[in-house]
């Protein structure tokens, strides 16, 4: 099972949920700032620790080793976590998946294979591990999933051109991706980027009405 941290909605009872997946070497502690920054008082947050220890933080997969096995293991753990949420009053269509870097990869690898539609998927500064395999494994609702992807043109860890090309490939296959690029490195570009994420999330719930 995955370790999680729950941050309830400020405004009281709500079925809306954001599942937050951190990047390499980070943890739930690295995203406790997100609820106040997004300013969505009706949103519950489930911060998730990746399963593997990594220099004081956690990792979703071994990018220097057998990434395929690690990604698939973590994907199955995330599916199990997601399938627990409806019994807690958080159905998939009220849930947003959010991930940064390795967490972005896990959002995309999990969300596009998942059999139910989410309120949205947000992937920041990441990539798809194997686009050909992912496209072969798409769920029946994958092309209906709303996806926001952002990336920095100066990213030194996950080069911008590679992710940009992947997005073009995935969009050409009918996946619904809203793409934004920022003059940033491997980070979140402050309020400018948060505003785009906030608007994407709000629009997703409006669309589901």
What would you note in describing this structure?
- With about 210 residues, the protein is of the alpha/beta class.
- It has a single domain (about 5-205), classed as 3-Layer(aba) Sandwich (Rossmann fold), CATH 3.40.50.1820.
- About 35% of the residues lie in helices and about 20% in strands.
- It is built from 6 helices and 9 strands; from the N terminus they run ββαβββαβαβαβαβα.
- The protein has a 7-stranded mixed sheet, with helices on both faces. It has a two-stranded antiparallel sheet with strand order 4-5.
- It is globular, with a radius of gyration of 16 Å.
- The chain starts with a strand and ends with a helix.
Write the layout of secondary structure elements.
Layout: E1 4-7, E2 17-21, H1 34-38, E3 44-48, E4 52-54, E5 57-59, H2 67-84, E6 95-100, H3 102-111, E7 120-124, H4 131-136, E8 147-152, H5 160-172, E9 177-182, H6 190-207
Parallel strand pairs: 2-3, 2-6, 6-7, 7-8, 8-9
Antiparallel strand pairs: 1-3, 4-5
Structural key phrases:
Rossmann fold
